[in-house]
S1 family peptidase (Streptomyces dangxiongensis), 390 residues
Amino acid sequence: MRRTRLAHAALAALLVLGGLSAAGTFPASATGSTTEPATSARSAEPAADGIVTAMQRDLGLTRTQAVARLAAEKAAATLAPEARRTAGAAYAGSWFDAPSGRLTVALTQEAPAAARRAIERSGAAVRTAEHSARQLDAAKARIDRLTAPPGVGGWHVDPKAGTVVVEVVRGKRADNDVQRFLSLARRTGPVTVEASAAPRTLAAGTVGGDPYYTGNVRCSIGFSVYGGFVTAGHCGQPGAGVSGWDHSYIGTFQGSSFPDNDYAWVSVGSGWWTVPVVLGWGTVSDQLVRGSAVAPVGSSVCRSGSTSHWHCGTVLALDETVNYSQGAVHQLTKTNACAEPGDSGGSFITGDQAQGVTSGGWGNCSSGGETWFQPINEILGRYGLTLHTY
């Protein structure tokens, strides 16, 4: 690995910003990371200065707004799993509302009054919903068992709308196979249909940059784990050798899954080592990783990749099924941060919390687009890995 870059990452003081904790009656708890609680002293600072700079550029925020949003998102990420446990069967989803800076929790009409009051006292806004999260998740699971034609881009639960959103590729709505799929999907529960672009993975042929290579494919490192790093599954098969930015040997794909999932991990050796750093590419400072608390829908998220480098956006949906040409991939998170070929496998991070590795998307960083990432905690759990944190 590039020694000068690592020295910079390891020694940089990295200006950090004070955070706010969630108010209310819920106890602090970890929200996804098995290695470090999200509310620990080491993760109290929401982000390094570079994250704030990137959010200013990509989300149109002032510095003050970016700092305040990161603090509010951190509080919401801590509050969300506690709100779900408090609501029980009446839970209908939650999301971060950027204008108010608060977590919004949807509850069915059957929610106990005590649970509603407890969630409101915690600082969250409460909305009434017709369908519970359990009902919506069940409807999506039934759609997951269908075979989607190429004209269907994907589907996910939208807690704000209280439905499962099925995305149809623009110009394909009248296709007979699409119509049959939509007819079957509507039988599973509440479904709405939206137009979208066709999703694709973001691997690329061998070009210059700061990537890793397997064969003639260039992808991007996601996050360091003890013993290696995680990345996208479509970038390589188990046993495939991996070389680094300088074409020296790094290690080997130890596990990989694509489609159905889009994750993999690569062992590291031959003089390479792991560090809890996401590269800023000179656009922002290199970022330290302190945990993997899941960011709710509506939160900001930034992405690092070997082609388009640093870009930020917003989490649009969790647990989306994406219908690539190679087959459906499940449990992806949807964002409007842009990406381009070669960014596959790269890092998604909110504040200092790892979120996932780039899977695919549509569009580019000139005209905009949407992307999906495979959540980091699922990858860690699947392979029994431990995230390398600072």
